Each structure stands twice: as structure tokens, then as C-alpha cells.
Amino acid sequence: MNWINSLVRPKIRDLLKKREVPENLWIKCPETGEMVFHRDLEANLWVVPNSGHHMRMPAVKRLETLFDGGDYETVETPEAHADPLKFRDTKKYVDRLKEYRTRTGENDAIRVARGKVNGAPLTAAVQDFAFMGGSLGMAAGEAILTGMQSAVTHHTPFVLFAASGGARMQEGILSLMQMPRTTVGVQMLREAGLPYIVVLTNPTTGGVSASYAMLGDVHIAEPGAQIGFAGRRVIEQTIREKLPEGFQSAEYLLEHGMVDMVVKRHDLKDTIARICDILMKRKVEVPSLAPPEPAGDTIETEAGETDQKAAAG
């Protein structure tokens, strides 16, 4: 037996063999360059611990953190025509849809669910940027309308987590038609007297920000989220001027009255629940602003009642 061929060479090959390491075990913070272990990031709701940068969050995890105990009921949405225009760019649109459905496990960019938040019923829709940039197409428009109709039927507030690059170009004008359709859905909620709360996440741009994402009763933004219609470069080339620092960020829009509040992800659930309680005219515990009564001596009477006397010098 040739021990060099049978023993030494296999061991050398094993040493030189490229080990397969799963991708995305460590995630880099876009602001500081800090490397964060993916489990630590997930445990912290996809917020980088040291910098506080809010990373994109999967739609399913978003719903799990919103509803009590992660328990919710998925609202079934109608199917739309897969490829109405027979569109093709570098690949067929139907093939691109199959690719993203396999990659994300979602049928399209919107997931709708119903459950309880701090004990109160609520209907929510989450736009997943991982599915073709959260683009608004026929299926997404149908999902949003179905969610709003479900909120009206069950008389619950409707919360939308927006994250999108805009309308889906592969569906052309049929995609743009979803903008007025969803606007009608917003009006339907208002006629029913139900709150419509929009949470603007990073990024919310294009036709989405030009329609239902900016029609809420209350607009909440996550820290650092990019919110606007056109991109910074396009605007600067159009107006031939340099835009201010932080333009289109959540904090900039808050300063200029475009959003109502910027809320950290860890505080979103309680903030949404409190706003819904107020708008639905439920009983809300408000802390007393009255000063505390001065302390004094207390004595027990024969009847067992407690009397309070001011302390004497």
C-alpha cells in the first residue's frame, strides 16, 4: 500500500479544501462599520446595539414583534394576474417573481395579519423590501385593499409598515393604478371612523410615498429612515442646487412637519397601542399631574379608620 497516496494526500486535500461557511453570520453596520453577529442583531430587533442603526426587518418578524406573544392570523389576499403585460427585461417577469417567491417565502411584497396589540384588536400590513424592493404592483395593491376592508369588517385600527422603492415597472400603468385604488381604501377607513396609522421605514420612496404612505392619520418614522419621492441625486440634478445635510431623513422630516414622530423600534408597539387607544376612544391611563399630599402622622381610631393629622413641631 502506498501510504503517501492513501493517507497523506487525502489529509492535505482536506486541509486545503475550502470550508463552506454560511453567509450573513456577521452583518456590517452601514454607519460605523461595526460587525454584529446575526443572532445578536435579531435578538435586538435588527437594531445595531452600539450605533442604534435600524436595519431592515423581515415582514414575518415585524408581525411577530408587533402582536402579543407573536400570535396573529394571516389575512388571505386575492391573487392577481402574474404577468399582465408579458414583460421581459434581462429575464422574464414571471421568472423574476418565482425567484423572489423562492428567496423570501412570500407570495408578493405585502403581508396582512390580524391580532391583538396590548390586548386590543388590530389589523396590520407589512411591506417587505426584500421582495423586489417592496414595489407596488397589482398583488400588493389588492393586499392593501383587502387589509383595509378586513379592518372595516372587524372594526379595528389599520397599521401599515411602509418600505418601498415605488411602483413596479414590470406592470406599467397597472401598477400606477394601485395608487388611487389604495387611496379609496384609506377613505373607506375614514368613513368607518377607524384610525389609519403609517409607520415609515427605510426606505419609503416613489409612488408609495406619493399615495397611501402619506395619507395616514398619524405618521410614525423609524430613526434614520429615508423618506421621499425622488432620490437625492435626481433632485439635485433637476434643481441644480446642493441639498441640505440629512435631507429626506426621518429626523429632517420631523423638523419640517412631514411626520408626527420618530420612534425607536423597541418602543413602536407601545406607541402604536397608545395611539390606537386614544383614537378609538378607549380608556387610557393618564398619569396624575397633581402634587403629592404632604406627609403627616397617622393614628388608628377605635373603629379601625385611619385619620391623618399634620405633624406638629
Automatic annotation (TrEMBL):
Gene3D superfamilies: 2-enoyl-CoA Hydratase, Chain A, domain 1. Its EC number is 2.1.3.15. One of its GO terms (molecular function) is carboxyl- or carbamoyltransferase activity. Residues 289-313 are annotated as: Disordered. Transmembrane segments: none annotated. Pathway: Lipid metabolism; malonyl-CoA biosynthesis; malonyl-CoA from acetyl-CoA: step 1/1. The keyword Lipid metabolism applies. Residues 25-294 form the CoA carboxyltransferase N-terminal domain. It is found in: Cytoplasm. Keywords: ATP-binding, Cytoplasm, Fatty acid biosynthesis, Fatty acid metabolism, Ligase, Lipid biosynthesis, Lipid metabolism, Nucleotide-binding, Transferase. It catalyses: N(6)-carboxybiotinyl-L-lysyl-[protein] + acetyl-CoA = N(6)-biotinyl-L-lysyl-[protein] + malonyl-CoA. GO terms for biological process: fatty acid biosynthetic process; malonyl-CoA biosynthetic process. The keyword Transferase applies. Acetyl-CoA carboxylase is a heterohexamer composed of biotin carboxyl carrier protein (AccB), biotin carboxylase (AccC) and two subunits each of ACCase subunit alpha (AccA) and ACCase subunit beta (AccD). HAMAP family: AcetylCoA_CT_beta. Belongs to the AccD/PCCB family. Component of the acetyl coenzyme A carboxylase (ACC) complex. Biotin carboxylase (BC) catalyzes the carboxylation of biotin on its carrier protein (BCCP) and then the CO(2) group is transferred by the transcarboxylase to acetyl-CoA to form malonyl-CoA. This is Acetyl-coenzyme A carboxylase carboxyl transferase subunit beta.
